[in-house]
Design goal:
about 40% helix; alpha/beta; 6-stranded parallel sheet; 6-stranded mixed sheet; 12 strands
């Protein structure tokens, strides 16, 4: 069977009665740069449909020196917050003419450098990292190769790297303030991975607010953003006599908080919120389900995604553009896992 030859942009140009460059501009991912009238576009698209023409993204990238690909770096997607973020980032990137290339990274900083070095071989136009920390060496590599990086829900102090986060310090303060205002005195903390900026900043704000109110963390365990370790941390804090255990706990994200609620209620038989108040961070959709009804701090995920894509697009278009570090305000969402305590 003889393979049918593919139509080219030259064929489309001839049929539409326009130049080849007009065809290329009409199919450009950046409409503001097309410079082709709507009437001419209709003629070009009609000719392309009749000929079965499809623009060649690879050939176009050789001309423009841009691949149109943004690498998305994630450590895990079982946390509903990051699964939602991935979907929203992909959709918004598409609206800006980009395609996402997703890389799953190690859950800690081990092996990250090797993976990032490999992804650079794909000639990506930019990188958005989520739940991934980058070393100064990796940042230097990206900057030296002119590849912009935007950190999503992470922040680092390196020069040349933009970030979009929630104001995690403020969120930690809000969690502590709410537990103090509702009469809690023995307030515990379950933190995430110690080298994560999100866990570090949330815990910093939480402890700072307690100190400002002449209080301290009653007990502290590390859940590492891991379900098995969160279960162990929960048992250490609460599998003891009522007199020795906390009356409230702030858990550094909802992913761990929902697992802790399961252990508390179904394994340890602790009534939340009658015996213990629990507050999380993120406001993933599951937290609103009646069986959880978790009080938490909401991250403005849509605004975070919008700003991340805006930044990476602007940096791709203008590499000399100044970096931005954006911290958006969280919001306390009160449900049914925090109860007012009365003390004699």
């Amino acid at each position: 069977m003889v393979k049918k030859s593919k139509a080219t942009s030259i064929d489309v140009a001839r049929r539409a009665g326009v130049s080849q460059s007009a065809v290329s501009r009409a199919f450009s991912r950046t409409p503001t740069q097309s410079g082709v009238s709507e009437e001419t576009k209709k003629r070009i698209f009609k000719a392309a449909k009749e000929l079965g023409y499809r623009p060649n993204a690879i050939a176009r990238s050789l001309i423009t020196q841009r691949s149109g690909i943004i690498a998305l770096l994630f450590s895990y997607l079982d946390n509903q917050f990051y699964a939602l973020a991935l979907e929203k980032l992909c959709l918004e990137l598409q609206e800006h003419g980009f395609r996402a290339l997703v890389f799953m990274m190690p859950s800690t900083d081990q092996g990250v450098e090797e993976t990032v070095t490999q992804l650079l071989e794909y000639q990506v136009d930019g990188i958005i990292t989520a739940s991934v920390e980058l070393s100064s060496t990796l940042v230097d590599i990206c900057v030296s190769q002119g590849i912009p990086v935007v950190m999503f829900n992470r922040s680092q102090d390196y020069e040349g790297i933009s970030s979009v986060t929630t104001d995690n310090v403020a969120g930690g303060r809000m969690a502590a303030r709410h537990l103090l205002a509702t009469g809690h005195r023995k307030i515990a903390l379950i933190s995430g991975w110690e080298r994560s900026s999100t866990s570090r900043d949330r815990c910093f704000g939480f402890e700072a607010e307690l100190r400002d109110n002449q209080a301290t963390v009653f007990a502290h365990e590390i859940g590492h953003f891991d379900l098995a370790k969160t279960r162990l941390a929960t048992r250490k804090l609460f599998d003891q006599s009522v007199a020795d255990r906390p009356d409230a706990v702030f858990i550094a994200n909802d992913y761990m908080a929902l697992e802790a609620l399961s252990v508390l209620r179904h394994e340890l038989g602790i009534d939340v919120p009658k015996d213990l108040s629990v507050i999380g961070f993120d406001d993933i959709p599951l937290t609103a389900f009646p069986e959880f009804a978790l009080t938490t701090l909401r991250q403005p995920i849509d605004n975070m995604v919008h700003n991340s894509v805006r930044l990476i697009n602007e940096l791709v278009q203008d590499p000399s553009r100044s970096i931005e570090k954006i911290a958006l305000a969280p919001r306390l969402i009160e449900r049914r896992t925090v109860e007012f305590r009365r003390h004699r």
